[in-house]
User: Fold these one by one.
Assistant:
Number 1:
Amino acid sequence: MSNVEFKIKKKLSGTLGRAGVLETPHGIIETPAFVTVGTKATVKALTPEQVESLGAQVVLANTYHLYLEPGDEIVRDAGGFGKFMNWHGPTMTDSGGFQVFSLGVAFGAKVRKLSKVTQNEIVSGDEIDPEDQAGKLAKIDEDGVTFKSYKDGSEHRFTPERSMEIQHNLDADIIFAFDECTSPVAPYEYQKQAMERTHRWAKRSLDAHHANKNAVSKQGLFGVVQGGRHRDLREESARVLGAMDFDGYGIGGSFDKDDMTTAVGWVNAILPEDKPRHLLGIGEPEDLFGAVLNGCDLFDCVAPTRMGRNGTLHTRDGKINLRNAKFARDFTPVDSECDCYTCKNYTRAYVAHLFRSNEMLAGTLGSIHNLRFIIALVEKMRAAILDGTFDTLKINFLGRYHKKIKG
Amino acid sequence: MSNVEFKIKKKLSGTLGRAGVLETPHGIIETPAFVTVGTKATVKALTPEQVESLGAQVVLANTYHLYLEPGDEIVRDAGGFGKFMNWHGPTMTDSGGFQVFSLGVAFGAKVRKLSKVTQNEIVSGDEIDPEDQAGKLAKIDEDGVTFKSYKDGSEHRFTPERSMEIQHNLDADIIFAFDECTSPVAPYEYQKQAMERTHRWAKRSLDAHHANKNAVSKQGLFGVVQGGRHRDLREESARVLGAMDFDGYGIGGSFDKDDMTTAVGWVNAILPEDKPRHLLGIGEPEDLFGAVLNGCDLFDCVAPTRMGRNGTLHTRDGKINLRNAKFARDFTPVDSECDCYTCKNYTRAYVAHLFRSNEMLAGTLGSIHNLRFIIALVEKMRAAILDGTFDTLKINFLGRYHKKIKG
């Protein structure tokens, strides 16, 4: 009996979509759910109470970052990252794989970021030789990865077993198997080799996890499907990992923007239906609709908070940048239909003033709004699955959201 | 009948100290009270609800900064700075004088900052010629001051009438007469000339204020006592301004650290007893005790929040810097006797991690703690005046607070 239990409440007929409930040791997550990112055991610019007030159900921290600072043993001694940061609800940590690789390899331009591309922007790059995959900062071998810290250049090594050990110390409710996140511009042969290695690492992660009875008693382990942009590899990865005893699945790596939704469908058609699926690194409204329709239950992304700190805010009519001069005397809310703290209490003129003045509260108010906007959108998707109005929601929302951008 | 009414509740026998209540259009302020600084219509790193939860009763914004950004007319159109920033309690603005002068003159080292030295650190400097008083960025004449913006070098001009006009636009409950804040290293003759000009400006401020019936109906005006470090000048300033029809008094300018308390006593022995007195720019515990004992009712200072953002936090046993390595594994609260949100929910290890990681929440948690520490201290002073235990409080608090620093 796993400590992480998933129940489907309703399926969206004719699609892979579903609404469910994911039980964790620190509470339930009603799915589909947007997972709030708290990289270093803090959702940037927000208190946990502010995060909770947005309807956030779960916080995901990054293993790579917490390992480097303050160190997973300090987090363990503090009682795990949830207790450390004063977040009492469900928690997740990623495997550390994405940061290790993304800081060591060049990612291609024109390729949709999809995986755990949550901490680093994809940098433009020409096609790279797969031998460069391990790049300057990370070297891959069958056993694991040796990499240099982005902070001080010191050398470190992650293996599946080490990733499990660190994630056990961080003590999140849901943890991820150690995976290789390939560059989207790597050729087919390399993608295949890397995927097969990821499968072996998945098995080793599972074994290492099961060897720790204390961890098994309170942490669920998700495997991570890879395979790049290739249908046969994605389907093979879903089959191989789907046959392993994971509590759920992450879908990592990169896809082309146009085929993301399709590719997610390939994977979810094969993954066990009764297990939750987490699409890593997704947070734009159109992608969320596609992912939900194609059977994903969880999504995380730093985009809402990063944009929120930079002054780019979601509205029902598309994104606006509050640094634009036209907002200096705009005494209306950021989005007059939004129920968030920022929209209920402040004007665009005020928030714009904070951004121009580089005041810290700007990032707080921007993050509150963008997170609430995305969380509320996913809440609406769930409600629409339950009452059978998903198509209407999608058409109405995206029609209006994109109108302004294109118009 | 003024819209700002002060009532003394109890005097501290044998001293100038008193506890009182200051009524303003946006609520009462129980004095002595620490005034929280919200420079640009935001208390840095905090929401107004967080500020209120600390026991803060009143927020002071800086006229100079709001005039430059976003501009006082935008703040006026937003309904005043309190409404603009979503702070519903009492508000104050300073005259703009301090920033105008402090950005144009060299302040001396070894001199206690006292006046509105709230936005800029005093820079070390040799004795300067009084003719340099107007410095590179500010030029003083009888009518007012021409200065250059610290932001873009653009030229601006403040006069007493203009300061009133801007402060009427900002619409705080309590505003200040335009004053010249002299360099503490300026010679006696210059201090005397500047003080006399400040008295003429005080009269012009009063006239300009009274000419605006709408403003008079909802804003109280405080005069600002100057006179540098000279007893005769301070006493003369208190006499001249005390005879004018102000709703209260600010005490500005700089004193030597050692004679600050004494000098404040000279002034308050002369100022009308029934009017509130605001000592500008004070926020260290020992100074607060001295100021309260010598008859001050209000104090403002950016030190608690500035230190809080930098990792220097008050404790009952003196200040600590959380960036110190010894706190990395300290799982106790910042101050185990403190009732603030930070101390109730987080460990030194966690807050230290946030500071080392340059996370925005570090500044928020640090500011919450330091502000609550100072506000709670002033609350205790008020209670001690009311129940006759002020001396005990002072001895016990300062004995312990300084023990660690000196020991």
Number 2:
Amino acid sequence: MNSRWQPWSLRELVASRMGPAQALERSRARIAETDGELCAWVVQDPDPQPSSGPLGGVPIGVKDIIDLAGLPTKCGTPLRADAEPAEVDAAIVTAWRQAGAMPVGKTATTEFAYFSPGPTRNPAAPGHTPGGSSSGSAAAVAAGHVPLALGTQTAGSVTRPASFCGVASLVLTHSRFTMDGVSALSPSFDSHGVYAAGVSDLALAWSALVSEPDPALTAERPPRLLLWQGDAGPEMRAALAAARDRLVSAGAVVDDFLDEKVIAELTAAHPVVMAYEAARTRAAELAVASVLSEHLAQLLRTGASTPEHEHELARRTMTEAGKRVAEVMAPYDAVLAPAALGPAPAGLASTGDPVLSRPWQALGLPAVTVPGARSPAGLPLGLQLVGRAWSEANLLAVGCWVETVLRPTG
Amino acid sequence: MNSRWQPWSLRELVASRMGPAQALERSRARIAETDGELCAWVVQDPDPQPSSGPLGGVPIGVKDIIDLAGLPTKCGTPLRADAEPAEVDAAIVTAWRQAGAMPVGKTATTEFAYFSPGPTRNPAAPGHTPGGSSSGSAAAVAAGHVPLALGTQTAGSVTRPASFCGVASLVLTHSRFTMDGVSALSPSFDSHGVYAAGVSDLALAWSALVSEPDPALTAERPPRLLLWQGDAGPEMRAALAAARDRLVSAGAVVDDFLDEKVIAELTAAHPVVMAYEAARTRAAELAVASVLSEHLAQLLRTGASTPEHEHELARRTMTEAGKRVAEVMAPYDAVLAPAALGPAPAGLASTGDPVLSRPWQALGLPAVTVPGARSPAGLPLGLQLVGRAWSEANLLAVGCWVETVLRPTG
């Protein structure tokens, strides 16, 4: 990896005591240098306002389905090409501002955070997709434009780009923060996320966001993990097997997740509910589906024609499956799983497959992507840790431990 | 009850084949006749657009936290006094339009759907509160202004006004329809609701909304019910006891809900999460709390100072309690419970207490209010039926059966 694409560590920035003006200058310089090629940004704020707080004015990117006062929210769709500037910040932006973050602009998203790609390229894998839908945020962090960037996940929209771009991500427990001011796709699944250079940086960001102690400082005991590999491809399986060996050597317990049936049920139910809800959330867009991407139009049409009883059955399936997964996970700290099927697919036409995130997202569980692994060809591979609901701090502590153990040593 | 305040049956309207123009004329005449006194409406649409669909142009009211294209969404707060007209309908409005409903205006709400009352009076109990927060919608249906009106419920904002005003209501399973275009208070609990003259009318409306068979036609078998009376006052307890006798005589099984501990846990956890989320959803309003009602300002301040671990504990408590309640409810069709502590309190200063809805709303369960009972002084008393998640049709079928059995006979 070329130094042009070196991520920018939040922990180092905070430790350096660089002021907001200097941090902004550095962010703008990095963006100016490489975003012509990368296309991670839709628009930059000409006059970002720093705020006080533990993060002390750190520049952050905001996915362009999240309202940022003074800039339009274009949602990656021609339907919003002439959108007016948002009047107020989304609630999650307010929360990050209170933590001391300084939003510097909007990052590219797929159309309404579904599958139709934007222009963004993958700084860690030239010629390969950055993943989606939070494409611009993942790429901006991977390229060192900003130390933090906000995403959202409905299926695998935070975790998969993190894996493809080689950065860390946190998906928050569903409904942990309100989605007020965020364009909805499937409200039962739409969750907040954030990218950073490493899990340790995410831990610091989280502690600032919720005013709680830094989870990195509590990461001492080797965790108990449940390994699930799903249908991951050979490169990802190899990375997972190597990780297992190193984690066990370092003292972790790693058992196998054996109930494939419950995962299959969740994986099947998730897209049913997602389409059903998207057709209702995006009813206005469904009425003009011919101007949408075929990906999105197809989703909305599917959802609009889903019979009520099929939707209800999918909901009940998720409820029952959720109980079983909670029982299986209870003796463990987290599930260790692939963050994507493999490295980023070549080309920009597809953002890849979210299938390995669907079962966990169906349950609204928090997930951390740990970067660092590479395919034999040198492409990034992420591992995800899935935690119990409302346990972000514990999950980040586990993530810090795992990140440290797996860190390349030489 | 004076005929000025006679509700307008949806089933009768649909059977009458009255066209949209005539129905609109009748609605406007009823509003003109009594709304000067009642104050159920914030604004009427000067030019409502009928749409085709099974409901065939029935006039409906829309609570003024729900966007209706062309009219402002004022949320019952001075902060929104100069709000611009909404550009697009909320998703739930689109769904009702597709069912053939014709929105005719916005109904009064408490401030941001919390406790601070609007100007609305109770047509069924002069001098008493109509309840809140969906005050205007409940009153408009009770007064026969419209056969249907939309509400929302975060604690007891649909069920309690139905009980106080003597009308039927349905609270939908949480996240059954997206809240897109609805001002959020506590997204984990915010749910849609609808009022009608009777449960049978709600069944017809539901079948139109979801394009499924009319639940009233499936209401044949006597249901199995679990009775829970909470801390209801003596008038409500008497109504509940009388209902139990009649339902058992008609063939229903009515057992007692014995796990008061799980209810207490849910009742305690609900306001913790509600305040926590409201402080984040309404962060912009929290910043100008001095212009808000003291009720709302207090809620937001409480939520802003809730420690993260307290919020997490409340969430976990709800998850565990939800499993226990689901097990207890599994052999039954519904819980039969008071819809409010008693009749509408005198005066307009308070909208009453939502405490008897909190445990069910914490779990996101659907609830139907069955009107018809009266206190010794002649004030309305509602009974609520709480169903399993995603089972609105079954719940409405049970509600129709209960309504028929309890109907006054002479």
